[in-house]
Amino acid sequence: MTKLSAPRRQPDDVSLGQPLVLGVDGGGTKTVAWLARLLPSGETQVLGRGLAGSANLRAVGLVSASENLDVAVDGAWNAAGQQCSPVESAVLALAGAGLPEVQAQVAAWAEKRNLAKHLQVVHDAEVVLKAGTPAGWGVALVAGTGSVAFGRAQNSATAVSGGWGYWFGDEGSAFRLGQAALQLAARAADHRGPATQLLGEILAHLEIENPREMLAVLSRDGDTRRAIAKLAGLVTKAAEQQDGVAREIVEQAGRDLAALVKGVAEELSLGPGFPLALAGGVLCGSQTVRDYLMETLSTAGLQPTGVELVPDPVSGCLKIAAENLAKGDVGGN
To answer: The pTM is what?
Structure first.
């Protein structure tokens, strides 16, 4: 596996003949770009990082997604102290990139800005699998603003479960946690449901006193989905403090996420044991959610052979880019 060394800014020796690679991870909340140099050892040395808003084309549209991609990539080059130029290999892992039309739009953006000599656009969970499993096979589970599971068998067959978007999917995601919290807080405010500390926590977070103002504040900046997803941390915190309503929400999230893993494992006939990689703010940020996830998997007879947290999925982009160069593979877009 290609290893990542500690990031180091060396603007004076970036162009010492070693090829440059670029990784971009674009999700529903943020877009992260890492510019790196491929060393003779096969390791990648991160030279610069960039950060921007969502690059999910289906959620924010082509214009906003393209602008955020530009900001993230330009930020990585600026952090490296260099002018933008085509890298040898770039791998972009974007939410919704499993769709051919999304891949075509991203490829057009990359070509317009002369991003790379070799470009590959992949499913955003695929790089989680690459970064978090020993041999690149198993199941990757992502629970951030949205949720999805991606699996690869040892025979290279792949499967996806979830990733349908927040209108009728994204179970176990930050959005669903926040949405459930709002529903139950509203019922508590109306005395139609059990009391919960979530009501007070949400009001304090939104800096309001009247529960009837919640919707207006959440929709104020135009990205209601993201605003609701930001409430997820309040839910997991309340669950850890033994709030009964919050614990029910988090327990359901664990069951929903386990169902995504189970769906992929069954479709690929992975058996009861397989490597499992976890990414996204919900999974990386909450031990409670992970505990419910693993408990549900165990009840279903699934025992992952290893569980790895992947806080920086973009590292998987660099690994794929480096491997593409090593084997002379231009990737696919």
So the answer is: 0.86
**Regarding beta strands 158-162 and 116-123, do their DSSP bridges make them parallel or antiparallel, or are they unpaired?**
unpaired
Encoded tokens for 106 = 């991203």
What SS3 class is residue 71?
helix
Q: How many helices (H) and strands (E) does the chain have?
A: 12, 11
Rounded Cα gap, residues 293 and 272, in angstroms: 15
Length of the chain: 333
pLDDT tens digits in sequence order for the chain, 333 residues long: 444 444 444 444 444 568 999 999 987 778 999 999 988 888 889 999 999 988 877 777 778 888 999 999 999 999 999 888 999 999 999 877 777 888 888 888 889 989 999 999 888 899 999 999 989 899 999 999 899 999 999 999 999 999 888 889 899 999 999 999 999 999 999 999 999 999 999 999 999 999 999 999 999 988 898 899 999 999 999 999 999 999 999 999 999 999 999 999 999 999 999 999 999 999 999 999 999 999 999 999 999 999 999 999 999 999 999 988 887 754 444
Question: What is the distance between the alpha carbons of residues 329 and 91, in angstroms, rounded to a whole number?
Answer: 12
CA atoms within a 13 Å half-sphere pointing along the CA-CB vector of 47: 30
Q: Which domains does the chain have, with CATH numbers?
A: 4-124+313-326 (3.30.420.40), 138-309 (3.30.420.40)
